[in-house]
Amino acid sequence: MMVFDKIIADKIYLIRGQKVMLDRDLAALYGVETKRLKEQVRRNIERFPEQYMFEMNDLEFSDWRSHFATSNEDRQGLRYAPFCFTEHGILQLSNVLKGEKAIKVSFLIIDVFVKLRDTLADQTELWLQIEKIKGKLGNQDKNIELIFQYLDELSSKIIVPDKLSPRKGIGYKPENL
To answer: Which of 52, 97, 130, 158 makes the best surface tag, with the fewest CB within 10 Å?
Structure first.
């Protein structure tokens, strides 16, 4: 199952600040032609408001194709601007496409979206903890610097005699020396 999760996760893109999947990738997962998937969506367009599904505009589409540096023949499998489905749009697809496979695939895809969201939340928490530690370390550096300044001041105030009186040696001394 982990391999399938990886396959799905690799097909999730960030477009317009939203995590989405493209119509052709979803069609492949559902086992239908992209053309048929788009037909069903158009027939049931009221189920797909802008926050659930949107079509790439011309600029996004040309950027998408140039990003993958695809030939004019293949265009990464994209001849027309694709529909981009958010997590909620994918749930709606299972209602539109109907069938047991569509429902099962939708659940698997949603599970991957949830895992990604949890991973992002965990990473955010980790970054917050790292920033907190950095703040504490920054204060430590300032405190250590202050300690060294105090030590410098103290060492300059200590009076050290220029010449120390010779010390009398200790231990056994032979008499003839």
So the answer is: 158
